[in-house]
Amino acid sequence: MSDSGFSYSFDEIKQMSEDVLKVAKRLGASSAEAELSLSIGQNVSVRMGEVENIEYNRDKGMSVTVYFGKRKGHASTSDLSTQALADTVAAACNIAKYTAQDDFCGLADAALLADVIPDLDLNHPWDISVDAAIEVAKACETAALQVDSRITNSEGASVSSGTGFFSYSNSHGFTGGYPSSRHGVSCSVIAESGSSMQRDYWYSTARASEDLMPAADIGRIAGERTVRRLGAQKIRTCQVPVLFEASLASGLISTLISAISGGNLYRKSSFLLNSLGKQIASPLLNIYEDPFIRKGLASSPFDNEGVSTRARQLVENGVLQGYVLSSYSARKLGMQTTGNAGGNHNLIVQPSEHDFARLLQQMGTGLVVTELLGHGINMVTGDYSRGAAGFWVENGVIVHPVEEITIAGNMAEMLKMIAGVGTDIQIQGSKQVGSILIERMTVASD
């Protein structure tokens, strides 16, 4: 691993982790766990053809959690020297002495820990020089500026590359770790026409640089998305179908996942309490979690507690098949961890038979949402209200852009009113989902 630019080999990391656990045991801890992360990377940004920023990062850190029975202490450090690590363990032990007992805390069950750690092909370092990255960023921005003469300014284009290493160890005898990479190219530009000024952007991210969208295509899409927003109008308050384009549809899925995640469930701050095995959405909604996709942006052989991840159907024909739980939240709920300490893995939302154009025709008259503002979601009641911008559609055809509107509904009802999931799937994060059509929402304008 040191050959890839890191300062430590996996054997050295394993030894550090084992030493930390030994110190914790010597200080009286009944159990302990250690998480270590390393990262290196660079980011280059240009604006209007000139270099704006060149940034380098080289980070490292270890966090230690100790348990004295049901008392827990936690401390972290960015100094990986032997003395600093010992001091960090001592600090965690000292904190544990002053914490209240929590009957649900502790390591994950030993029987659930990963015993086989497959190679998921997550590490593809991008050996790109600063000069080469600058040229890629310039090409991306130039492509955007050339889309239309009304594009008069730029918020810049950037190229980032990064590689990291994650390792987890605990006193059950588990130690596992793996390297991973993530690279990206993005661009944002501004267009003007009369008194109207609009901005938009596009980006691509991937584990391997060869899987990134070509820089010129990213810039072109950013430019096209910006220009099409010129001449935006307001519309009258109405109740109509709303089509969330793919990049925003993932946010609807994120809200659903948050509602079925352990923390919100045991705090009773979810609109989907006690929903396991129940119809929570339209029969068109099917969500599959697959942690083992090679090069997947959210792939992982084990979670942040060392628990084996597993592929599973989360939602089938609108029926909730499982929650998203860590060991702690599972114990609070009287259940078993689902291997999701640290979050969900690759979520694949199965599309229905329509592409974006067919979804427009299905919608007839309504609103396409391309931008959302604010965070108006009440996780307890499901009430949903967000500022928005997008396009007004009549007879299945986009008529004009709209802005300064609010869309409102209730997530519990919106999920059941899903009328279509598009085949225009975008893979830009942990969720793979196309555009989502909701049968009816309130669209308000001032």
Task: Explain what you see.
This protein is of the alpha+beta class. The chain has 2 domains: 2-227, PmbA/TldD superfamily (PmbA/TldD fold), CATH 3.30.2290.10; 232-446, no CATH class. It is 23% helix and 37% strand. It contains 9 helices and 18 strands. The protein has a 6-stranded antiparallel β-sheet. It has a 6-stranded mixed β-sheet with strand order 10-9-8-11-17-16, covered by helices on one side. Strands 7-12-13-14-18 form a 5-stranded mixed β-barrel. Helix 1 packs across helix 2 and helix 3 packs parallel to helix 4. The mean pLDDT is 95.
What Rg is obtained from the alpha carbons, in whole angstroms?
24 Å
| Content of β-strand | 35-45%
Average predicted local confidence, pLDDT: 95
Structural class, from helix and strand content? alpha+beta
The major sheet is characterized as:
6 strands, antiparallel
CATH architecture of the largest domain: 2-Layer Sandwich
Number of domains: 2
Terminal CA distance: 58 Å
